[in-house]
């Protein structure tokens, strides 16, 4: 399995993991990301699985917005 990496070299994370990094629930994280103009860096659908693909987020994008809003 090839792990996709973000801008800072860290692996991309799922919505649940990104939400955890901010201490919120996934639905709240998606709303927060939408308000701050962050989009998923990639999408993953395991082979043989149908349905909606899992969004993968770049922690560098999240950190950048957090630092800008905290200043």
Structure description:
- The protein is α+β, with helices and mostly antiparallel strands.
- Helix content is 42%, strand content 13%.
- It has a three-stranded antiparallel sheet with strand order 1-3-2.
- α1 crosses α2.
- The termini are far apart.
- The mean pLDDT is 91.
Quick overview of this protein structure:
The protein is an alpha+beta fold. It is built from 3 helices and 3 strands, in the order βααββα. It is 42% helix and 13% strand.
How far apart the termini lie comes to 39 Å
Instruction: Report the total helices.
Output: 3
Q: What is the percentage of strand-forming residues? A: 5-15%
Specify Rg, calculated over alpha carbons: 13 Å
Average pLDDT value? Answer: 91
Strand order of the largest sheet: 1-3-2
Please estimate the helix content.
40-55%
Low-confidence region ranges: none
Strands, total number: 3
Q: How would you sum up the major sheet?
A: 3 strands, antiparallel
Structural class: alpha+beta
Shape: globular
Order of secondary-structure elements: EHHEEH
């Amino acid at each position: 399995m090839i792990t996709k990496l973000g801008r800072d070299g860290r692996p991309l994370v799922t919505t649940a993991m990104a939400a955890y990094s901010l201490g919120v629930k996934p639905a709240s994280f998606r709303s927060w990301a939408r308000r701050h103009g962050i989009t998923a860096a990639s999408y993953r659908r395991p082979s043989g699985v149908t349905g909606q693909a899992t969004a993968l987020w770049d922690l560098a994008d999240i950190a950048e917005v957090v630092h800008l809003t905290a200043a």
